[in-house]
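ZP: hey, is the uracil complex queued? I don't see it on the tracker
AM: it wasn't, my bad. submitting now with these inputs:
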Amino acid sequence: MSLKASELILNKDGSIYHLGLLPEELAHTVITVGDPARVDSISKHFDSIELKKQKREFNTHTGSYKGKRITVMSTGMGTDNIDIALTELDALVNIDLKAKKINDKLTSLDIIRIGTTGSVRKEIPVDSFIVSEWALGFDGLMHYYKDDSFLKKEIAAAFVEQTNWSDKKAYPYVVEGSKKLIEKLSSDTTIKGFTGTNVGFYGPQARILRADVPDHEMNDKIANFSYKGLKITNLEMETSGIYGMSKILGHHAVSMNLVLANRATGEFAENAKVMMDKLILYCLDRIVA
Ligand SMILES: O=P(O)(O)O[C@H]1O[C@H](CO)[C@@H](O)[C@H]1O
Ligand SMILES: O=c1cc[nH]c(=O)[nH]1
């Protein structure tokens, strides 16, 4: 049975709806970033660029770095965008867009997020590189999918109990990154971490400019949470969705985080651009190693 036009949506040129990409335009190693401008900061290191396309916040370049074909694509901010980005990346490799049928033989992508983050721990200062071994999603995205076999329910339950998590918020979920990619991207210049993925940057990360939040202790409670020695290291807005969607769809994913803010000390990075370029080159070289 073929997928209906309302479900698998294609543009007039046959490209997938939001990303605007055709299957042959995607490499099987995909770097995702939040910021559309960061795509240029990565592809400027490529030997050659074969494709540049932008639709909405999804800015995509495909090219080669030291001989390896890589796609770099921005997702914009938040796991609502990640639901779209990961589903459509998967459709490009695992659905025959012309026949509108799922392929018999499935392809697994390597997905590497390169993003920015806020540390919740004094001992993880600004400019650190965190490799997310685990993600805790505050966003609820995974509850909209049937397969929950990969979720670490006992860790989520311990988090809810220890932090007295409000039942007005989505029930948190915990998911592991790809062991293969975590090892590939880790070294003595990175810290392995447990990344909290929030639904926003201000209130959801307990930042107060003018609008107050119900719990001023929230980030302390998050930092104090511990499960068999596992502690949350940092907060951002995409990793849990990338890890969860990758598990459901059979892809490998790792999230690499540059610490810009230290929420425990109140500091913010002074050399964000320089440090992001360092993280980009570090990731590119580990990917091709
Ligand atoms: O730097 P990026 O990849 O956008 O990631 C982080 O920065 C944004 C917030 O400033 C959120 O998307 C968060 O996850
Ligand atoms: O504190 C921070 C810094 C970057 N990105 C986030 O989501 N939070």
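AM: back. Residues 23-288 form a domain with the Rossmann fold fold (CATH 3.40.50.1580).
ZP: great, adding it to the tracker
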